[in-house]
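Hi there. Long-time user, first ticket. I'm pasting a complex I've been working with (about 357 residues overall). I'd like to know whether the download I got is complete or cut off, because the file seemed smaller than I expected. Thanks.
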Amino acid sequence: MKKPIILGLMLLSSVVMALSFNVSKKETKTEPLMVVKDSIASVAAFKQVYAVLMSPRCMNCHPAGNVPLQGDDSHLHTMLPKRGVEGKGVLAMKCSNCHQAENTPGLHTPPGNPNWHLPPDNMKMVFQGRSANQLAKQLVNPKQNGNKGMKELIAHADDGLVLAGWNPGEGRSLPPISHAEFKKAWLKWLQTGAFAPAK
Amino acid sequence: MEKLTLTVNGLAREVNVDPNMPLLWVLRDLLGLTGTKFGCGVAQCGACTVHVNGEALRSCVTKVSRAVGQQIITIEALSENNDHPLQLAWAELDVPQCGYCQSGQLMSAAVLLREKPNPTDQDIDDAMSGNICRCGTYPRIRAAIHKAAKMQQEGVKP
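Hi, the file is complete. Here it is re-exported in full:
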């Protein structure tokens, strides 16, 4: 009985609202985010988002430990490079020592991006091992998401490293849906209230 | 092809190359600096490590265009007279066996000692794990890095 009651309450509370998040007075040109709370649509959208975030192309750089992951089986990165304070590696093993601004041609060569890095040590933004419920809550918590408000979360869909997931270099699988589909689901999830799935 | 000016071991060097050519090829084949070695060609072994603005870059996957305007240092100029504390320690402890990987090992170790003048074993593992030695000279490399660190503290300058 509890679930239908909770669901009912959630639906009742899904009053149509138009909110603008993090739009300061100085940023009047920014289009306000229209949020129309809809827990069912939100959770459905997050299912797609979660499938992408847990794909190797996203999760490999959001490891539970301090060593990035590699490959479609998400094994520990060969050579065991460490995250470092800024997420850019340590000592003679900094990410950009091998990872160039673009993908290196050929199989099993280092993929590239001008901003190649892991999340920093003080904000690890772990995806590996997170349930859909945990990850959804983490993604909208500024204390766990890199201090991102709604505006930054929306913009993050087009972040260079996010886009790099769809240009992974030879021999690496793509995320399960296109970037356009991902962005659509991401925005849908946020714009319907960023609800977390039950599990 | 493009005319590029590189600063290699403190000298301006002009080369006429495809900007996508790996830096390693330019160093070895065009400039004759053969101390830096080709190992795997895919940034997996560390034999090709050189310093670009002080960082231990893998020159086999670094396009020469990335190095334009940067300070490139190869093993030939790690020190003026082969007297970097690491080189002295390397010789004293007879570190190399076949020697093929050793220039890369030294270039990585030099970055380590610059950033951690008194490295722990864990620091050495963290810094050197990208440099593979098929002869397995790892115990001597570790000992030599510790020795070089001590020499530095006693006043031997890098």
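A couple of notes from our side: Residues 5-30 of chain A have pLDDT under 50 and may be disordered. The interface with chain B takes residues 78-82, 90-94, 96-98, 100-101, 104, 106, 108-110 of chain A (CB under 8 Å).
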